[in-house]
Predict the 3D structure of the following.
Amino acid sequence: MGNAEPLREEIISFVLDRASRNGDFVTRAELSFPMPNGETMPLIDRSRGIRNPREMAATISVVSSPDSPYADREMEDGLFHYSYREGSINGDNAKLRRAHELNLPIILLRKIRDGVYVPHAPVFVVADLMEKREFLLTLDESVRFLASSNASAPERRYAERIMKQRLHQKDFRGRVIAAYQTKCAICRLSHGELLDAAHITPDSDELGVPVVSNGLSLCKIHHAAYDKNMLGISPDYEVRIDHVLLEEVDGPMLRHGLQDMHGSKLILPSRRTDQPDRDRLAQRFSKFLNRAS
Ligand SMILES: [Zn+2]
C-alpha cells in the first residue's frame, strides 16, 4: 500500500522551497526534515549516495557528483543513469527499486561543492536494468517518452539535449549563487528568488561555458541592465552606469538601484577560482563602452 505517501510530497516541497530561497541549492544541514512528531529526518545519507529512511516505503534521495569522470555517461539518451550501489542487487538498491515499482518521486542531489547540493525533483525511476546494474531516472516528465527505448534516434537525441540543458542550467545557477553566498554581486540583495546566475560571456557564444568564473550572481534588475549594456563591469571589478542613464531623473529604482551603483566595487566570492574571469569581463566591458560612446 505504498501509494500516495503524502509525507514524500511534503518533503519534496520542503527541499525545493528551501533551495528556491537560497538560489537553487541546499546545504547538508538544511537537508533535515522536521517531522510532525517533532523529530527530524535526515534527507541525505552521511556516507552513502542513497537515503532510505526506515519510515518510508522507498528511497527519498540519491546523490550524484557532476564533477566525477562518469558525469557525461550518466546522461546518455536523455535519461540519467544511476549505478547500483556496491554489493548485491538488493541491499541499498531494493528501496530504489520500490520507488520504480510504486512510481514514487525521489530527489536527485547534485553535489556542487562540499556539503552543498542542487536538488532536482520530482525525479522518477523509469527502468531497472539488473544486467547493467543501473537504474534509469527521468528528470523531466515531458521528455520521458522521447527517451524510451521505442523512441527514434532523433527523439532520443532531442531528449538528451533537453535533459543536459536543464541539468547544466540549474547546476550553474546553484554553483554561482552559492559562490556569492546568495547575494547580488552589485547591490548585496540576498533573496535567492530574486537572483540570477548571469553569464559574462553569453551562453549563446561557444566560449560561454557554464563555469563559475564565467558567472555573476546578480539580482533581476542588475542582470537585465548588464545584459542590455546599461551597466558595465570593468576588468578591475568596478561597476559603471551608462552616462545617459546617469543623467536621467526618475524614481528610487533608477536613483538608488542604478545611479548610486556607479563606481562601486563588485562583491567577490571568497574562493579565487570562483571569481569572475578578468579577460571575459574585459571583453564584455568593451561592448558596454562602445554603447556608451
Ligand atoms: Zn542587484
Summary: Residues 51 and 128 are 18 Å apart (CA to CA). Residues 184, 186-187, 189, 218-219, 222 surround zinc ion (CB under 6 Å).
